Amino acid sequence: MSAIRFATPDGLPAFLARLSENSRILAPAVKPAGKRSVIFEDWHEGMPVILEKATVPPKDAVLPQCETLFTYKKSKNPDNREDVALCLENRAEARPTVIFACRPCDARGFAVLDRPYLKGPFADPYYKAKRANLTVITITCASGCNTCFCHWVGGGPSSPEGSDILMTEIDGGFVLQSMTEAGEKLLESAGLDDGREVFAKAEAARKTAWASLASAPAIKTAPQCIAALFDNEQFWQEHTEACLSCGACTYFCPTCYCFNITDEGDAFDEKGGRRLRSWDNCMSSLFTREASGHNPRTQKALRMRNRIAHKFSTYPENWGAFSCNGCGRCISGCPVCLDIRAVVLNAIAAAASEA
Amino acid sequence: MPVMKDKELRIVGFLCNWCSYGGADTAGVARAEQPTDLRIIRVPCSGRVDPLFIVKALLSGADGVLVSGCHPRDCHYSSGNFYARRRLEVLKHFLPALGIDNARFEYTWVSASEGQRWQQVVTAFTRRIHTLGAAPGFEDAPLLMKTADMAPAPLRPLGTGKNAPLESLKQAIKEKLPDLACVIGWKQGYDDAHTTPLFAKKPEDVDELVWGPLNAANLAVYLPLFKGKKVGIVVKGCDSRSVVELLQENLVAREDVTIFALPCEGTLDMGRVNEKLGRYNVVGGIAHGATNITITTDGQEHDFSMAEYAQNKCRGCTEPEAVLSDVRMGDSPLVQGEAPVPQELALLDAMNLDERRSFWRTQMERCLRCYACRNACPMCVCRDYCISDSRDPHWMTQEAGVTQKLFFQTIHALHLAGRCTGCGECQRACPVGIPILGLRQHIARTVGELFDNYRAGIDPAAVPPLLGYEVEERNIREREWK
Ligand code: SF4
Ligand code: SF4
Ligand code: SF4
Ligand code: SF4
Fold first, then answer.
1. What is residue A1's three-state secondary structure?
2. What distance in Å separates residue A173's CA from the closest CA in chain B?
3. Yes or no, beta carbons of B190 and A342 under 8 Å apart
4. What CA–CA distance (Å, rounded) separates B293 from B286?
5. Per the structure, how many domains does chain B have?
6. A residues 54-83 near B, CB within 8 Å?
7. Ligand 1, CB cutoff 6 Å, lining residues
8. In terms of domains, do B303 and B349 share one?
């Protein structure tokens, strides 16, 4: 049985305030500017409640832009300078965190990240600690948007994957429906009114949202088609000419999860050294530059191939699902308006004409 | 050596090996009494002092930085200190833009024999830093969100380029195309309301070329990638300045580039356009009036007048026509009035140092370190070899704190000193809308003030000011030591 609750717009701050007693709340916040953006931030009482789709997804909650994995210190035995002791301090931290008002595509991002980080031969302890402490409250979308295409890739405006609670706007307020045990527990102690009576309205709103989407092209064959184009450099070059190799597309992608590991500081220093894990991206040349200086992907076209193929071919091969949720941010946020949808569709067409 | 708590501050000195380092030695040998706060780093020449050394020291917690080299005309390498003088003077003007008091940084000249002068310099500078106290940081500055105003009325009537002779231009491009590897222009993007770069190789590609207020991207960024090949490029006025700057720096050869130009009537600020459009499913069409465009989304019409929705830089633009071109068509627009202080710069100007530190902390917190700002910049030609990515030398860490992020902005801004044409692509590319252009505009203004109203990318034959020097600088004065 799932818990179903109802909240009025005025009731949301009190709901969040209550949650914030035991958890950090990450909620969208507006950053005014010539080009305004919406960023997930720690929510505190008194802050407005924003329900807009964010410019940058809340991936940071489980994969911070930069995190210290552990610190290390070396000390020499004063009697025998050859004798060096190494002291490691693990930093797999996690605070209970609630993400409030992400979108279904963002929530599905967590499902995409979970597979390599938790379900492979080794579970990543840092990710695992944060993920286990995370509750995701997703607001379902009332309509599609010009760049998103969630329904091409197995999602939709009310897809529950990755969410603990789905929240849907109806006349006069929001219906909150738990999708997992954690969501149910949260709702049961949230102090909200029962929502069963109005649940039908939420279902109707979700249906309307689905109906507003343009029909999706069939891209089931994308994994094979893209694999077949692996050696077709011309195809990748044509689709990458305009790319600036900035990698912005990967940093605001809810499903990109590559990282870099670096050491900072000095082990013999008082403060010790720090091993950091930070975002990295396959669109940058440095990503594949090897210690020898050799770089298998100096051409940006090959890097684009990697990004597209990872999302639409190799990840699906390994995990049975696309690792693109169709959030459209890499389209709307790209400084030169590159369109991943077009690349995938063109790849399917090109593979067909090659065969 | 640890700093003596409460007694000493952290002062870093970069001293030229051939003079000031010797001067300090002379002072020491003469047993001249000196404060002990200064930590000296010996360098081969003041010309070796990258202004970024100083910023890095200041952002990493130094309370003061002193650079000392050989007197002008006395450089061991003949001209290192002449270059240093220009760079360090620009830096001195720039530091306040970040919110750093520029009294915390000084540069001077002390020869090996001037033990007494050294004593005087180091004593006076240390006293000054003690009066200022420990330097305030960025990470804990109180938050302060501010946004730039809209630029005042445009200097020429803005329009949609609707009547520009696009078809004749296409014809001219087709005629030249056989001799060119490609011609770079704009074509329609993923919908009617967006354009994307076009790389025309065949005549039928040229038919895709569009002209109008959606052509915001500065295509000069692609030119260095074609080095050694003959290419054509379609430019707006501002883009042409980037091409000229590339020519000035020999990053592109004049004979390799064919410049096609139409007079620009302004481009849209898509940040504000998108804010007004809100969330929509599909663009149903776009109509160009003479001075406005109408975008239809989900059946609803939205009107954007160019006067109101053009990018700030377009409103203040004084070169809507290419400053250099091979094929030029269309009527020359009449520009009236002086360029106003750019808006992002005016925003910085209106703040004091504390507010600027707060401002940058607030802005930089959301920086993704994606470096789209860098990659969109036509003058950032190091591309895959940017020092911010290098581990050796180790300029930056991967840490996500605001000082690292602001330091990156400083790297970009200072590497663009005297080279930045103010095209605004860095800021336009920023996915989270950080108003980083102000830092570039600040330096450009300083460069103009110091070097006879110099503006980058106007004259292909001009030497960028930081690549040259004068023995007697007209606008740089030596400071007194008392
Ligand atoms: S955001 Fe656009 S320009 Fe930047 S790397 Fe991605 S596709 Fe290329
Ligand atoms: S690849 Fe693009 S559309 Fe797909 S999830 Fe990432 S940012 Fe969104
Ligand atoms: S720094 Fe910014 S404004 Fe200056 S040339 Fe580069 S992109 Fe243009
Ligand atoms: S483009 Fe914006 S977010 Fe990206 S590194 Fe530059 S300032 Fe930061």
1. coil
2. 20
3. yes
4. 7
5. 3
6. 55-56, 64-66
7. A 243-249, 283, 334-336, 338; B 372
8. no
Residue B62 lies in domain: 11-132
Taking a C-beta distance cutoff of 8 angstroms, is the pair B388, B396 a contact? Answer: yes
pLDDT by residue (tens digit) across A127-141? 999 999 999 999 999
**Which residue in B444, B429, B378 sits closest to B241, CA to CA?**
B378
End-to-end CA distance of chain A: 50
The radius of gyration of chain B from alpha carbons, rounded to an integer in Å, stands at 25
Assess whether B27 and B64 both reside in one domain. yes
Q: How many residues does chain B have?
A: 482
Hey, how many other C-beta atoms are within 10 angstroms of the C-beta on B413? 24
Out of A252, A264, A339, the one facing B368 most closely (by C-beta) is: A252
- Do B319 and B404 have their domain in common? no
The domain that contains B64 carries what CATH number? 3.40.50
B373 CA to middle of ligand 3, Å?
Answer: 8
Helix intervals (H) in A83-132: 104-114, 125-132
Q: Is the CB of B360 under 6 A from ligand 4?
A: no
Q: What distance in Å separates residue A10's CA from the closest CA in chain B?
A: 23
d(CA B27, CA B117): 8
Q: Are residues B308 and B261 in the same domain?
A: yes
Rounded Cα–Cα distance for residues B420 and A230 (Å): 39
Question: How far apart (Å, rounded) are the C-alpha atoms in residues A177 and A158?
Answer: 11
Same domain, B183 and B307: yes
Give the number of the ligand closest to the Cα of residue B415.
3
CB-based burial, A83-116: b 16+ in 10 Å, e otherwise: eeeeeeeeeeebeebbbbbbbbbbbbbbbbbbbb
Query: Three-class SS of residue B384?
Result: helix
* Whole-prediction pTM: 0.96
Q: Are residues B189 and B229 in the same domain?
A: yes
Ligand 1 atom at shortest distance from the alpha carbon of A283: 5
3-class SS of residue A100: strand
B99 & B177 share domain:
no
Alpha helices in A300-339 (DSSP H): 300-309, 315-319, 329-332
Q: What is the DSSP letter of A159?
A: -
Structural tokens at position B129: 């830093």
Q: Per residue of chain B (482 residues), what is the pLDDT tens digit?
A: 456 666 899 999 999 999 999 999 999 999 999 999 999 999 999 999 999 999 999 999 999 999 999 999 999 999 999 999 999 999 999 999 999 999 999 999 999 999 999 999 999 999 999 999 999 999 999 999 999 988 889 999 999 999 999 999 999 999 999 999 999 999 999 999 999 999 999 999 999 999 999 999 999 999 999 999 999 999 999 999 999 999 999 999 999 999 999 999 999 999 999 999 999 999 999 999 999 999 999 999 999 999 999 999 999 999 999 999 999 999 989 999 999 999 999 999 999 999 999 999 999 999 999 999 999 999 999 988 999 998 889 999 999 999 999 999 999 999 999 999 999 999 999 999 999 999 999 999 999 999 999 999 999 999 999 999 999 999 999 888 76
Q: Are residues B94 and B195 in the same domain?
A: no
Q: Are B96 and B9 in contact (CB under 8 A)?
A: no
B400·A33 Cβ contact <8 A: no
pLDDT given for residue B387 in this prediction: 94
Q: Is the ipTM of this complex over 0.85?
A: yes
Alpha-helix runs per DSSP H in B133-220: 166-176, 203-206
B190, B280, B370 ranked by CB distance to A248: nearest: B370
Task: List the residue whose alpha carbon is closest to atom 6 of ligand 3.
Answer: B377
Query: For residue A65, how far is its CA from the centre of ligand 4 (angstroms)?
Result: 13
Segment 126-145 of chain A within 8 Å of chain B by CB: 143-145
| CA dist., res. B282 & res. B286, Å (int) | 12
Distance from CA of A249 to the nearest CA of B (A): 9
Chain center to CA of A90: 25
What are the structure tokens assigned to B278, written together? 């809100």
